[in-house]
Amino acid sequence: MTEIIVVTSGKGGVGKTTTSASLACGLARRGKKVAVIDFDIGLRNLDLIMGCERRVVYDFVNVIQAECTLRQALIKDKRLETLFVLAASQTRDKDALSAEGVRRVFDELTAEGFDFIVCDSPAGIEKGAHLAMYFADRAVVVVNPEVSSVRDSDRILGLLSSKTLRAEQGNGQVKEHLLLTRYSPKRVATGEMMSVGDVKEILGLDVVGVVPESPDVLAASNAGVPVIFNDDSDVSRAYEDAVARLLGETVPLRFIEEPKKGFLARMFGG
Amino acid sequence: MNKTADVTREHAVEIRFGQVGLVQVRLHTTDTGSILDELTGRTATAPHFFERTAVCLDLSALAKPPGVDEIRAVIDVVRRAGMLSVGLAQGGASVESLALELDLPVFSHIRATSKPVPVVQAAPAPEPALPALMQHQPVRSGQRVYARNRDLIVTTNVAAGAEVMADGCVHIYGPLRGRVMAGAHGDTEARVFCQAFNAELVSIAGVFRVFETIPPELAGVPVQAWLAGDDLRFARIGEQYPN
Questions:
Q1: What's the whole-model pTM score?
Q2: Cβ of A202 and B138 within 8 Å?
Q3: C-alpha span between B190 and B221 (Å, rounded)
Q4: Which of A151, A161, A204 minimises the CB distance to B157?
Q5: ipTM of this model?
């Protein structure tokens, strides 16, 4: 049984690609067979974050237009046996995608025995974003704790409940998960940032993960190593937790409160 | 298969309801000469204001129902005065049949008749009211829910940027952060009830109020809104008993 997970948000720059990469790696680390697909045709980034940009020969559009086989286009991850990347095309535009083509690729991945297909959606609500979510079984809505991101996520949730194959066929809802990124408990405490509770209440969804704001994310992107591999980082632990929750485990939320400074740290300003 | 092929097709049209101002011209005669004289006299005072402006012809002040050709001639002179006739004001069966022949719409909400034309016609039987439309899914930003000819009950939240409308009352049992319109077809008795008030806009029978900031006594509490004449009123549910 292959599950299709779309990582989406509406707004750009909130961490969709970082999240797609880390969730895909996290699932693969637990032995699942995972394909992660970049739907951002023309602005491909996933291959950079995954550190395989120099190994892209064929891409998603080539497969859709039957210019190569799926096997030729799937890039096998060097770190994890069961992880494959399907890069976006840098030279085409989003009109190169078609619903029929996307369905064919998904059917083929299903036949190959993949457990998960992670779709990295482009920003916006247009064709690329629409096709990324259209066949989804689940959605991870990435949101930053600020009003415009929350508003855009609400819009995306509306589309998930109406403009997907499941909604159109009346075949149950797309299961929706909320993932907060760039969360800074310190700024929440000072009232500069919305809290997990605020976002949850406005969107009416349960939280699958809270990823703290951290310089580790940028460092990981630059290095081409998904941040979940940085075992020293809270970001990595937060994504590991999110993966566990996606797989149905119950894990308490971490990193939502400011760490209490110890007595000595307070004395010496540490 | 068809389903998927249709996925990316845009809608050909979008139907939206809105209110626009409309100039009304009440005819006291169908004599084209005097109409043209008066209209050109008026438009000369503010030529840009009247240029290609849409007008609605009100025939209620005419002594006897005019003929189709008479009205055609009037439409012609109105055009010569620089304005465009887009419809007729409501005025009974004779206006209805004229409008049909002229292929023009009848505007029903123009209360212009000083001497109402006696209409010997039973009031249209009200359409049987339907059971309320239930909405159990959150209404998300950008979504619209419309309950035609009935009440609307929303059991979850209405997000900022979402719109809920009903021809009857609207009941919202979650936080209301979007826009709500009750009595969308002019029912002034319709009301809005909500559990936690944070609306962007509330409208009843076309009378609306935009909330740039929520008055502190209403913010986040259960509120009902109703029309008293042309006045849109709000009160916390349970504290007062408005009628």
A1: 0.68
A2: no
A3: 20
A4: A204
A5: 0.70
